[in-house]
Design the sequence.
């Protein structure tokens, strides 16, 4: 069918116009590729440990999620079918799964030397050139050429005694040194007789838990209405 434009007088085909119109559904089509399944870590070797760490009583569902693959591949609907309720709990689990895929862990997640769910932390001193570290993180050795850098590492005592190369040392995140050699951080337990320079950190329930906010006066959505109703009620009481 050929139509003439009332303005320009040119001819165009409605069929051609229909075919050349862009397909917006195709542009918005989403890929069905499943996200990758990350590798377990020494501190988080299995689904049970993962559910224990993120808290919110998700460890009670450990018997329903038995494999590492299922932990990172089950959909929200499948988790619902397994009885993981309410919906906000499933969203929380999916949120932590996504963080773990990106390498965003809670305290202790970056530890490599772990045995029976526990890791040992110790303070080591490494001599490095002056230009390698900021002044506020080290003290001068007296030579003017080298400084001593203190850091908290997750290395066995034997490796520290033999001397670990500076390039292989990685400071433990979330910990700090207070005073001369005292390790301070969440869930840290000092080893007796070490004056705080050696400590252990062990998997505990809720170590990575992000606690839910507490609703005040009905929460953010109803706060103004609830507080106004309270104010009016107080005024009526005062008038009486």
Sequence:
């Amino acid at each position: 069918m050929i139509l003439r434009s009332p303005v320009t007088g040119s001819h165009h085909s409605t069929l051609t116009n229909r075919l050349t119109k862009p397909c917006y559904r195709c542009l918005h089509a989403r890929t069905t590729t499943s996200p990758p399944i990350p590798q377990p870590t020494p501190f988080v070797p299995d689904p049970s440990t993962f559910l224990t760490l993120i808290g919110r009583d998700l460890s009670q569902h450990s018997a329903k999620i038995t494999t590492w693959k299922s932990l990172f591949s089950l959909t929200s609907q499948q988790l619902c079918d397994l009885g993981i309720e309410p919906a906000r709990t499933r969203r929380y689990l999916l949120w932590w799964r996504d963080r773990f895929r990106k390498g965003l862990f809670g305290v202790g997640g970056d530890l490599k030397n772990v045995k029976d769910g526990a890791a040992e932390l110790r303070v080591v001193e490494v001599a490095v050139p002056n230009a390698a570290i900021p002044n506020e993180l080290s003290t001068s050795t007296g030579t003017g050429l080298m400084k001593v850098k203190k850091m908290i590492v997750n290395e066995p005592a034997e490796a520290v005694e033999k001397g670990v190369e500076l390039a292989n040392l990685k400071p433990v995140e979330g910990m700090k040194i207070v005073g001369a050699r005292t390790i301070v951080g969440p869930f840290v337990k000092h080893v007796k007789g070490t004056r705080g320079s050696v400590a252990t950190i062990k998997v505990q329930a809720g170590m990575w838990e992000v606690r839910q906010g507490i609703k005040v006066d009905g929460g953010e959505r109803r706060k103004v209405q609830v507080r106004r109703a309270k104010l009016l009620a107080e005024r009526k009481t005062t008038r009486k």
Notes: The first helix runs from residue 14 to 20. Strands lie at 2-4, 11-13, 114-115, 118-129, 138-140, 146-153, 176-178, 182-184, 188-190, 198-202. The helical segments are 14-20, 24-27, 47-54, 68-73, 76-81, 87-101, 157-162, 219-239.
